[in-house]
C-alpha cells in the first residue's frame, strides 16, 4: 500500500500565535464558545484530517498581570476531555485527542475518562500523555514547585503502565517528549509522536532515531507515526501570504514577546539583562529541557541579542509562508526525506489559517497522491494505519 500522509489539527482557539485574539478575523473568546470550536472541528473533518488535538495546562503560567492581560492562554478554553465528548456527538469520523497530565492526575480516574471517551466516540479517542510544564500547575495541586524532570518521567512510566493495565479498549497514545527520558518513554508507549523540529536535517535524524528506538524495544517502527509541528500561512500568491503574516505579527506587544522567550527558556526573568546584549547562560530548565536547548542553539548560531531573539520567535519565523504549491513542496520534501509520517498542523489564527489550509493546500496534496480524498475507516487507529494493533 502506498504510504499516505497523516494530518492532525492542533486547535487552540483563537489561534496559536499569542496575539491571535487581536486579529480582526478571530474571536477572542473562541476557546469558550462551543459553536466556534465545533465549526473548526467540522472544517477539519470535511478535509479528512486524521484527528483534532487539544493541548492543556492545569495552571496559568506565572507571568505578570501586564503580560497575562495581553495574551489568550490555554486556560481560556474548555477542559479538553469534556470538550471532546461533546464533539464526539457532533462529528462522525475525525479522531479526538486530548492532553492529560501524568503529574497531576491519578491512573484510575484518567483510565476511566479516556475509555469512556473512546466508547462514546466509537474508537476515535487519543490520549496525549504529558508530564506537565511549570510551577503554576504545581501550585494548583498543593505543591511549592513542579516535580524535578527525572521524577516526572519516572512517575509517567509507572502511571502509564497502571492505566494500560486497566483498559479493555485502548485509545491511541500520543507523546511529545524530546529529552532523553521523553524519547525513551515515547518509543516504548506511543502510537504517535508530536515533535518540534523545524530543521529538515535534524527532523530526519530524529525520525530515524525514534524508529530505531522503537525497533530496539521490539516494536514495529512502521507503526510509530511521527508528526512534526507545522505552522502555515498560505494564499494563492506568495506576496499575499507574506502580507497575512506581516499583519499578524504587527499585533504582538513587545512585553509579551519577551515574556514568551523567557517562558521557553524555563520561566526565568530576562528583564534584568541588557536587551541588546547576548542571551546569558541560565540555569537548566525544569520545564522543557529540549525547548530551552533549541532556543540557546538558535541564539548562538545566529549571534542574536535578547531583543532580536524575542522578536524573531514572536514573529513566528518557523511558519511556512507561501502559495499552496510551495507549502505542498515543503510537506512532500519532509515526507519523502523521510522526516515525517505527517504533520501536527498549528494554526496561527482561527478560522482563517485552517480555512486556507483545508481549501488550498489539501487539494494540492491530493493532486500529488499524498493525502486521502475521504475516510476509509471509522476509528482513529484506522486513519493512522494502526488497526489491529493493541
UniProtKB/TrEMBL annotation:
Is the Flavoprotein keyword given for this protein?
Answer: yes
Q: Which GO terms describe its molecular function?
A: monooxygenase activity; oxidoreductase activity, acting on paired donors, with incorporation or reduction of molecular oxygen
Question: Where do the Luciferase-like domain residues begin and end?
Answer: 20-338
Its source organism is: Kibdelosporangium phytohabitans
Q: Which family does it belong to?
A: Belongs to the NtaA/SnaA/DszA monooxygenase family.
InterPro entries attached to this UniProt entry? Diverse_substr_monoxygenases, Luciferase-like_dom, Luciferase-like_sf, NTA_MOA
Which domain of life does the protein's organism represent?
Answer: Bacteria
What residues does FMN bind to?
56, 99, 149, 153, 179
Keyword Oxidoreductase (UniProt): yes
Keywords attached to this Swiss-Prot or TrEMBL record, sorted alphabetically, are: Flavoprotein, FMN, Monooxygenase, Oxidoreductase
The identity of this protein, by name, is Nitrilotriacetate monooxygenase
Family annotation (PANTHER family)? ALKANESULFONATE MONOOXYGENASE-RELATED, C2H2 FINGER DOMAIN TRANSCRIPTION FACTOR (EUROFUNG)-RELATED
Amino acid at each position: 500500500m502506498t504510504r499516505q500522509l497523516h494530518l492532525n489539527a492542533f486547535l487552540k482557539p483563537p489561534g496559536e500565535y499569542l496575539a491571535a485574539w487581536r486579529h480582526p478575523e478571530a474571536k477572542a473568546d473562541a476557546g469558550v464558545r462551543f459553536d466556534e470550536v465545533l465549526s473548526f472541528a467540522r472544517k477539519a473533518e470535511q478535509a479528512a484530517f486524521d484527528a483534532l488535538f487539544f493541548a492543556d495546562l492545569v495552571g496559568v503560567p506565572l507571568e505578570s498581570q501586564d503580560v497575562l492581560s495581553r495574551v489568550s492562554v490555554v486556560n481560556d478554553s474548555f477542559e479538553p476531555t469534556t470538550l471532546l465528548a461533546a464533539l464526539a456527538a457532533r462529528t462522525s469520523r475525525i479522531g479526538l485527542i486530548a492532553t492529560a497530565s501524568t503529574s497531576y492526575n491519578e491512573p484510575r480516574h484518567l483510565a476511566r475518562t479516556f475509555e469512556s471517551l473512546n466508547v462514546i466516540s466509537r474508537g476515535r479517542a487519543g490520549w496525549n500523555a504529558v508530564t506537565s510544564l511549570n510551577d503554576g500547575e504545581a501550585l494548583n495541586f498543593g505543591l511549592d514547585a513542579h516535580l524535578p524532570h527525572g521524577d516526572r518521567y519516572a512517575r509517567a512510566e509507572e502511571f502509564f503502565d497502571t492505566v494500560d493495565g486497566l483498559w479493555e479498549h485502548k485509545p491511541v497514545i500520543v507523546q511529545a517528549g524530546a529529552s532523553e527520558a521523553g524519547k525513551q518513554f515515547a518509543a516504548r508507549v506511543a502510537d504517535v509522536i508530536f515533535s518540534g523540529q523545524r530543521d529538515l536535517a535534524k527532523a530526519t535524524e530524529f525520525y530515524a532515531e525514534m524508529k530505531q528506538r522503537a525497533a530496539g524495544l521490539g516494536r514495529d517502527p512502521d507503526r510509530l507515526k511521527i508528526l512534526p509541528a507545522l505552522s502555515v500561512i498560505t494564499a494563492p500568491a506568495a506576496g499575499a501570504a507574506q502580507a497575512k503574516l506581516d499583519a499578524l505579527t504587527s499585533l504582538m506587544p513587545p512585553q509579551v514577546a519577551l515574556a514568551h522567550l523567557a517562558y521557553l527558556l524555563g520561566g526565568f526573568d530576562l528583564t534584568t539583562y541588557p536587551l541588546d546584549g547576548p542571551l546569558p547562560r541560565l540555569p537548566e530548565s525544569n520545564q522543557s529541557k529540549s525547548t530551552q536547548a533549541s532556543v540557546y542553539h538558535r541564539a548562538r548560531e545566529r549571534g542574536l541579542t535578547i531583543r532580536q531573539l524575542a522578536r524573531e520567535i514572536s514573529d513566528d519565523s518557523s511558519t511556512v509562508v507561501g502559495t499552496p504549491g510551495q507549502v505542498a513542496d515543503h510537506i512532500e520534501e519532509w515526507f519523502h526525506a523521510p522526516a515525517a509520517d505527517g504533520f501536527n498542523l498549528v494554526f496561527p489564527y482561527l478560522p482563517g489559517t485552517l480555512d486556507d489550509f483545508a481549501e488550498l493546500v489539501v487539494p494540492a496534496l491530493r493532486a500529488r497522491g499524498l493525502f486521502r480524498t475521504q475516510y476509509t475507516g471509522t476509528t482513529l487507529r484506522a486513519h493512522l494505519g494502526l488497526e489491529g494493533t493493541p
